[in-house]
């Protein structure tokens, strides 16, 4: 499966967690990107310890042969004035453009519970018609603004948001313009729907509209514990909901095959937030890179 269309990256969230700052607080930016490179990754996303000065960031990454491929954008169309969200988006777009990224991953988190103590399965938001209208209109505008720089906007379906379930993703994708893409996340769709088949169904359905891929594995026994004990999303993270490809239950071989056979062009990024004290980030990065190479040839 050797080709130059697909590149493999990793997210810094395994080293330092943006939502749980105590996880990996001892890990430096330099350690994080050095270990990414040492593990064989060519790209990464942006974490809370990354310099925002593009010259400083470029120099540090160039030394290690790493590129920025995407960064999380928190869209809040359900709770903020549209013009405020768009202003924040343009700042993010311009930062990523300077860093050479081609994709902007956005999630609608205005009324998300992913960072709250609420039970993740019982308290997720369900959009009203008015909220759907705001989100769809806002994403269309962001997509047009991304296009101005030759970039693609991708919606990150995510636990605890109003674009989480298969039904919600379908509604979103059916409603937005064709220049709004999907950020496919294997772990979040498994978590939401509770089965591996959903991973393949979602990928097959939108393979032509996927602009970015997150390779995230899950531990079903932890998901079941989260459900039974009514735990929050972040409590689940601490308990070990997520892990790297090859360490959980998801079989990525059919996923890699479908991605390759449908001429996907872009990044596949390992994104697995765990407690670094329990799951050494470098060790798990090596494990993930080896698994991906064995199963995909990339």
UniProtKB/TrEMBL annotation:
The keyword Manganese applies. One of its GO terms (molecular function) is manganese ion binding. It comes from the Bacteria. InterPro entries: IolE, IolE/MocC, IolE/XylAMocC-like, Xyl_isomerase-like_sf, Xyl_isomerase-like_TIM-brl. It catalyses: scyllo-inosose = 3D-3,5/4-trihydroxycyclohexane-1,2-dione + H2O. It is an enzyme of class 4 (lyase). It holds the Pfam family AP_endonuc_2. Keywords: Cobalt, Lyase, Manganese. Residues 36-289 form the Xylose isomerase-like TIM barrel domain. Pathway: Polyol metabolism; myo-inositol degradation into acetyl-CoA; acetyl-CoA from myo-inositol: step 2/7. GO terms for biological process: inositol catabolic process. PANTHER family: HYDROXYPYRUVATE ISOMERASE, INOSOSE DEHYDRATASE. This is Inosose dehydratase.
């Amino acid at each position: 499966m050797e080709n130059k269309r697909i590149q493999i990256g990793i997210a810094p969230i395994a080293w330092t967690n943006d939502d749980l700052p105590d996880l990996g607080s001892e890990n430096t930016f330099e350690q994080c990107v050095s270990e990414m490179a040492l593990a064989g990754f060519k790209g990464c996303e942006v974490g809370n310890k990354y310099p925002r000065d593009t010259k400083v960031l470029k120099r540090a990454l160039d030394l290690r042969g790493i590129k920025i491929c995407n960064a999380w954008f928190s869209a809040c169309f359900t709770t903020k004035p549209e013009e405020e969200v768009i202003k924040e988006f343009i700042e993010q777009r311009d930062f990523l453009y300077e860093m050479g990224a081609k994709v902007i991953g956005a999630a609608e988190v205005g009324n998300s519970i992913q960072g709250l103590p609420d039970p993740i399965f019982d308290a997720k938001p369900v959009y009203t018609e008015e909220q759907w209208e705001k989100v769809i209109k806002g994403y269309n505008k962001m997509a047009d603004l991304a296009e101005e720089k030759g970039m693609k906007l991708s919606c990150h379906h995510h636990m605890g948001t109003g674009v989480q379930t298969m039904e919600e993703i379908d509604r979103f994708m059916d409603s937005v313009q064709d220049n709004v893409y999907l950020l496919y996340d294997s772990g979040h769709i498994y978590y939401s729907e509770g089965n591996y088949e959903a991973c393949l169904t979602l990928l097959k359905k939108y393979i032509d509209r996927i602009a970015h891929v997150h390779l995230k594995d899950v531990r079903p026994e932890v998901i079941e514990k989260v459900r039974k004990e009514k735990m929050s999303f972040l409590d689940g993270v601490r308990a070990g909901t997520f892990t790297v490809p090859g360490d959980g239950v998801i079989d990525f071989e059919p996923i890699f095959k479908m991605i390759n056979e449908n001429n996907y062009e872009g990044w596949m990024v390992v994104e697995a937030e765990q407690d670094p004290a329990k799951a050494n980030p470098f060790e798990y990065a090596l494990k993930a890179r080896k698994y991906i190479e064995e199963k995909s040839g990339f």
